[in-house]
Design brief:
This protein has ten helices and 15 strands. It is α/β, with parallel strands linked by helices and 356 residues long. A nine-stranded mixed β-sheet has the order 14-13-12-11-7-10-9-8-15. A six-stranded parallel β-sheet has the order 3-2-1-4-5-6, with helices on both faces. It is globular and about 55 Å long. The chain binds nicotinamide-adenine-dinucleotide (NAD). Nicotinamide-adenine-dinucleotide binds next to helix 7.
């Protein structure tokens, strides 16, 4: 069964969802954006109707679900309105700008029985899916490293005069306005989610973060996380190096896990060119003494995620991922930030039932 959706937020990321939804035959009935030019252009490409008012989308009885791809600070209101209107929700990450808002959203979805997903699409990268399947073959997990080292240009030597990295005196930078934070929020949120997905909830965090003078966003965040599956080091870095990483394109994002019976290493490829660049998985198995490289064809994880979410929405069933995913990531990011600011290790106060 196919479904009818409204897209709320027609900026950069919306096209990845639009393409994914088209591939599985979901009907996009509405393109909604406060910016009329953005909604008109998206509507023209998809055959949807354009509007600036999300309430018009929610009032349409033919709409089964909304895909919320606005800037993160708008997610709370949009998610709560969609839940109240009885629509299923796929919301871009980060779910909110803080864990309190994320908690309020997910509690409302739980109470209403809404099929609700935060789209951390990297869970659907084939190399990550295979790594998750292979986890039981590692034996007892000893330790892990996760990193998102992303090429943001040289923001380290001088403040840019314009663009996302410019913080006006006393004002707010573009990166904070659009995404709610610096590299920890933008890139670190994905690897924080993958820690939760593969290794479970950390109980404590000890972190360090670099926010240069005159800026309102971090360029580096590193944390030591304690989990039931051993210690995890997490590092998110916005760097000026153009050729590092396994594809030589400046993108160096990895998950490395060592256990008593083997290791797993995922090297994920640049997120906005998923049709051309595939991620890599290497599994070392102590039983055979061999390392196996798992190579996959390039494929959009947005499309794979949307296909899985839409199947659940059509079945009115929350199977592929918990409602709590977005809250958990926001709670972990907040703990890392709190630790970095205080210079102390912090216990993480999970305010929802544990999910796998
Ligand atoms: N999964 C990923 O790898 C990834 C990558 C980049 C961005 N994102 C996330 O996607 C979301 C959007 O990011 P983007 O880069 O597309 O931002 P963007 O600024 O390009 O687009 C957001 C759009 O939302 C619109 N908007 C804001 N408030 C609205 C409202 N109340 N109603 C209707 N439209 C509204 C804006 O006018 C804008 O056109 C953010 O949550 C961001 O964190 C995810």
């Amino acid at each position: 069964m196919s479904i009818t959706v409204g897209i709320i937020g027609c900026g950069n990321i919306a096209r990845f969802h639009g393409d994914g939804l088209a591939r599985i035959g979901a009907r996009v009935a509405w393109a909604c954006d406060l910016d009329a030019a953005a909604s008109a252009s998206f509507a023209q490409r998809t055959g949807a109707r354009a509007t600036a008012d999300h309430r018009q989308v929610l009032a349409d009885p033919t709409v089964d679900a909304v895909v919320i791809t606005t800037v993160s600070r708008a997610h709370r209101v949009l998610c709560l309105d969609a839940i109240a209107a009885g629509k299923a929700v796929i919301c871009e990450k980060t779910l909110a700008e803080n864990p309190d808002d994320a908690l309020a959203i997910v509690r409302a979805a739980e109470a209403a029985g809404t099929v609700f997903f935060t789209s951390y699409m990297k869970r659907f990268i084939p190399a990550v899916e295979r790594a998750k399947e292979l986890m039981p073959r590692l034996g007892r997990i000893i330790a892990s490293n996760v990193r998102a080292w992303q090429p943001w240009g040289d923001l380290w030597t001088a403040m840019p005069e314009s663009g996302l990295g410019h913080t006006p005196p006393g004002g707010v930078s573009g990166v904070v306005r659009a995404y709610g934070g610096g590299v920890l929020t933008c890139g670190g949120s994905h690897i924080a989610d993958l820690v939760l997905h593969l290794l479970g909830r950390p109980t404590r965090a000890y972190a360090s973060m670099t926010v240069l003078s005159g800026r309102d966003y971090d360029l580096q965040a590193t944390a030591l996380l304690e989990t039931a599956n051993g210690p995890v080091t997490l590092s998110a870095i916005a760097h000026p190096l153009s050729r590092i990483g396994f594809l030589g394109d400046g993108w160096d994002e990895r998950i490395e896990i060592i256990g008593t019976r083997g290791t797993l290493e995922v090297r994920s490829s640049l997120w906005d060119d998923p049709e051309h660049k595939a991620s890599l998985l290497v599994h070392y198995d102590e039983a055979t003494g061999t390392s196996t490289e798992h190579r996959f064809r390039p494929e959009s994880p947005f499309a794979r995620a949307d296909a899985a979410f839409v199947a659940d929405i059509a079945a009115r069933s929350q199977r592929v991922q918990s409602r709590w995913t977005g809250y958990e990531a926001d709670e972990l990011l907040a703990a890392i930030t709190r630790s970095a600011r205080s210079g102390q290790a912090v216990a993480i106060d999970w305010r929802s039932p544990a999910v796998s």
